[in-house]
Amino acid sequence: MSEGRPTTDVKPWADPNATPFLQIKNVTKKFGAFTAVDNVSLDIYKGEIFCLLGGSGCGKSTLLRMLSGFETPTSGQIIVDGQDQAGIPPYARPTNMMFQSYALFPHMTVEKNIAYGLKRDGLPKNEIATRVTDMLSLVQMDQFAARKPHQLSGGQRQRVALARSLVKKPKLLMLDEPLGALDKKLREETQFELIKIQESLGVTFVVVTHDQEEAMTLSSRIGVMTAGQIVQTGTPHEIYEYPQSRFVADFIGSVNIFDGRVIEDGKDHVVISSKELGADIFVPHGISGVEGQKLAVAVRPEKVRISKSNLSDLRNKVTGTIDEIAYMGNSSVFQVRLDSGKRVRVTQSNLTRDNDDLTWDDRVFVGWADDAGVVVAS
Amino acid sequence: MQRRSKFLKITGVLGFVFLYAPILSLVIFSFNESKLVTVWGGFSTKWYGELLRDPQILEAAWVSAKIAFVSASLAVTIGTVASFVLIRFAKFRTKSLLSMMITAPLVMPEVIIGLSLLLLFVAMQGLIGWPGNRGIMTIIIAHSTFGAAYAAVVIQSRLVDMDMSIEEAAQDLGAKPVRVFFDVTLPVIAPALVSAWLLAFTLSLDDLVVASFVSGPGASTLPMVIFSKVRLGVSPDVNALATVIIGLVSLGIIVSALQMSRSKRRL
Predict the structure, then answer these.
(1) What DSSP designation does A254 have?
(2) Residues of A in contact with B170 (CB under 8 A)
(3) Mean of pLDDT values over A43-54
């Protein structure tokens, strides 16, 4: 593939010799007594789409505003391409931002909106014209060049905002909830387009979002934020399959969490006894814990199997009664009340058209493979 | 329900009659042929012609127009700066006090505004020898002070509504703050500026009390001339003049309101 596409093929973050393109070093931002961003350190590599994912008020937007220069860190350092950004005002930074509200200039046409940044740089007229035309065709807005923003739909405004923020070829593009204002269908289309554009230009993206689905599909890596801190950084796959904490497991996707305590601490396995589950959970790897330690096991609903028959191939299984069934089309979600009283969520793909041998109040076995669960601190 | 809506209709009609009957009768009598103001003598536009031949009125109209133009422009400038400081700057300790004070002239009795300005001008003349003889200059200063209060209210409401990220976007794209103000902020709030200007213009054109206080010999505004004419007895040409003024003022207010609603829609 082209040189602008290192994200999916190689993993610069796994290479100890790679130089990060954006370095955030121990950055803290306080508003009075409130700490919005708490000692965040982060390395982002060239060509990445890095998502800062977190709920509202977790500090992700403040972090983004510090990167673009609208807020000054209380302490810490931000380095872009080897250059310390401290003291550089927003208009002199090599970064651009796409705003959540798109922030298009309402009194300018689409064309003038996109040309604005180039004009500020004092580029010659004909170069501005060609670059604006190129950008317009990249985001497929050629026919709308003469329109004013209020004559555009939400999706079209999003494209114009993207074009305007990309036309200056920034080293780093920051996107604040880039798809937040679009409806679901448009979002899915735009997501892939955004990735395509990013790959063709090779610009490094830092995306802020509260939408985990958006983060999963867009990003090369995700940083999960809560209370001003980054609690886990990793690829979407790592974040989803190997959450390091209960918060991450719970925040990304849905999950069943069983609290328990270690009763057998072997070298290559542990057994966790869970009153909540009403059974012992076998984990096929050792952990750095001690016997008696309180832990929890997180199991994704789609990794839980449900059957009327005795799931004889599984070690981790219990019995329960079906409480609720939600038919979603491509899958069905079951709420099973275990004999212990705990409710478990099970998702099953609807592989056949009529899959209704399971119904309300059926007695069922639920269970999961040894390696399906993840041990997290409780 | 039926009775109530009838009642509402009647009170509504009565209210508007109460408001507009005097103005309407003034307009009608401005087309009166007779020299007697209260006796209808047939339709005529001769009093309008008479107006154009009255040098005193033409002179006063010109003075009023000049004063209104300059003071409205000053008022909008002051109002814009004040609004910008009050809306855009981070909270400072005297902010709420200042924002109350800027609107105080709206509720202050005109007599007090006029008197206090007169005293100020007299004192300033004694101390620094400026603004010299009272006249057009002093009226302009007086009118821009209370015009600025109205302008600030109009402009502030627009600035509050404006999405601040538009300004940040301009900065992000490489525009320095001053550039941002002229490229983005000013065009976006332009409808409010026009609206504020028209408001200040009509207020200045209307004012009699403040102008009477701070004016000097040789600088009589239109309302002052009308007032002095009326004291000598109402003549029909005053009706004609008043009708012209009503026309101009209503036009100003309608345009200003349209501007404001247009700018709200485009947000």
Answers:
(1) -
(2) 105, 116
(3) 91
Q: Assess A105–B contact: CB distance below 8 Å, yes or no.
A: yes
pTM of the model: 0.78
CB contact (8 A) between residue B169 and residue A107: no
Asked if residue B6 is part of any domain, the answer here is no
Sheet-wide strand order for A83-84: A34-44, A22-31, A75-80, A83-84
* Side chain identity at residue B218, one-letter code: G
Contact B135, B67 (CB under 8 A): no
pLDDT of residue A6 exceeding 60:
no
Q: Are A321 and A363 in contact (CB under 8 A)?
A: yes
Residue B5 forms part of a structural domain: no
Q: Are A105 and B169 in contact (CB < 8 Å)?
A: yes
Sorted by where each starts, the structural domains of chain A and their CATH numbers stand as 12-94+170-249 (3.40.50.300), 254-307+316-377 (2.40.50.140)
d(CA A150, CA A108): 10
pLDDT at site B141? 93
Q: Report which of A183, A160, A164 is spatially closest to residue A120, judged by C-alpha positions.
A: A164
B150: in domain:
yes
With contact defined as beta carbons under 8 Å apart, do A306 and A334 qualify? yes
A120 inside 8 A of chain B by CB: yes
pLDDT in tens, A124-134: 999 999 999 99
Cβ pair A97:B172 closer than 8 A: yes
What's chain B's average pLDDT?
87
Q: Which domain holds residue B93?
A: 28-265
Provide the token pair at B35: 């020299």
CA closest to B171 among chain A residues: A91
Q: Which residues of B touch A90 (CB under 8 A)?
A: 168, 171-172
Radius of gyration of chain B (CA): 22
Interface test with B, best of A104, A105, A172 (most B CBs within 10 A): A105
pLDDT tens per residue, range A56-93: 889 999 999 999 999 999 999 999 998 898 889 999 99
B191 sits in the region (left: phi over 0; alpha: psi -120 to 50; else beta) called alpha
- For residues A257 and B125, give the distance between their C-alpha atoms in angstroms, rounded to a whole number: 83
B162: tokens are 């404006």
**B4 has a pLDDT exceeding 80:** no
Task: Write out B156-211 in H/E/C secondary structure.
Answer: HHHHHHCCHHHHHHHHHCCCCHHHHHHHHHHHHHHHHHHHHHHHHHHHHHHCCHHH
Residue B97 sits in a domain whose CATH number is: 1.10.3720.10
State the number of CA atoms in the 13 A half-sphere of A183 facing the CB.
Answer: 3
B2 in a structural domain:
no
Encoded tokens for A66:
């510090």
**What does the pLDDT look like over A298-352, one tens digit per residue?**
999 999 988 888 888 888 888 999 888 888 888 889 999 998 888 999 998 888 7
Q: Average pLDDT for residues A35-44, to the nearest whole number?
A: 92
| Structural contact between residues B144 and B77, judged by C-beta atoms closer than 8 angstroms | no
| Number of A–B residue contacts, CB under 8 Å | 67
Q: Percentage of chain B with pLDDT > 70? A: 96
What gap in Å lies between CA A294 and CA A289, rounded to an integer? 9
Q: What's the structural domain count of chain B?
A: 1
